[in-house]
Structure formats: C-alpha cells, structure tokens
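>> received
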Amino acid sequence: MCVTVEITLPTIQTFLLLFSLRVGCLIILFWTSFRSCFCVLFFTSAILEVLIHRKSPLGWWLVSPSKKNIVAGNIYILYYLYVALLVVEAILLLFTVVHFAWGLYQEKSRPLRQYLICRFLTWIVEVAVLLFLCINHKLLIGWYLVLLLFVILEFYSLITVYSYYVNVSCEDNDPQNYPEKLQKMYNFTPNL
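>> returned
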C-alpha cells in the first residue's frame, strides 16, 4: 500500500528580487556545499574537543580551554546528536553535489526532485537536533544558535529550488511529466 504525500510550497519568480532562479540555484549550490563542508568539519572538531578532549584543527576557536567541562550524563546524548548531524550533513553534501548540480546542469526535474526530498528531510532533522543541542549543551550554544539561524534561513533556498523545479518540470523538454506525449511517441496503447 502506497501513500502519496504532496506538499505545496509557494513559488517565487526571482531570487532575492535581483537574480533569475537559475542563478539563485547556483548561489544556493555553492552556499549549501560550503555550509555542509563547514558543518562536517565543525562537528568532527566538536567531537574531538568536547567529548574526547583531543586537539583538533579548529579547536583554538571552538572552545576556550577553561570551559571544557561536561556533565557525564550528557556525553552519550551529545555523541549521538553529533553523529546524527555528521550523517545528515554528509548526505546533504552528497545530494547537493550529485543530484542538485546534475539537475542544474541538465535542466531536468528528476534529480532536482530527489534533492528537494533530501533537503526537506535533512532540514527537519537539522532543526530538531540543533534545537535539542541548544537546550542540552550550553558550552557551544552560540555556535548552535548561529548554525540554527542559517539552517532556518535555508528554507528560503528550499523554496527557490522548488520554484526552479516547477519551472523546469513545466517545460516541454522534460518528457517525464508528459506521459501522453510519450504514449503517442512510442504508441504504448494496445491495438484493439
């Protein structure tokens, strides 16, 4: 039994009232790739500095040496939250580089749809886990709040990519959305 869930988002015509949607999607591609790489580096450094107390490349600006105490009960919760965010950011980076870039290059809706599904799910997980980290781990709350701010603002980028997806999927050069054209082209109807 399959259930189809459709979410209708508002569409926009331009990105930040200045750029076309394609240019906006290219900006979003570079921004999301940069932010995902930074988050992977940040969370691996946080695991090393906060949980394991080892030096990391970013440790000198992540946590001051006098504040590296942690409550013993939170270690496992923090570890699993950090690992969850690492996995989510790695998946997001993979889908951004592969599906989003390929969909922009080919101007096809199928890879963009896969990216949009991944981005929506990772967005929900990022917001939930970062909120939970803000509540449970006060040592790096400033970093978590800045990351949460950027993640919440990325909902606009999700709407921008969705608007571009709607424009691309409505064009005539994407036969996936026009099964009647394919049916006429290849004559899939049985002869009676």
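>> Residues 43 and 82 are 6 Å apart (CA to CA).
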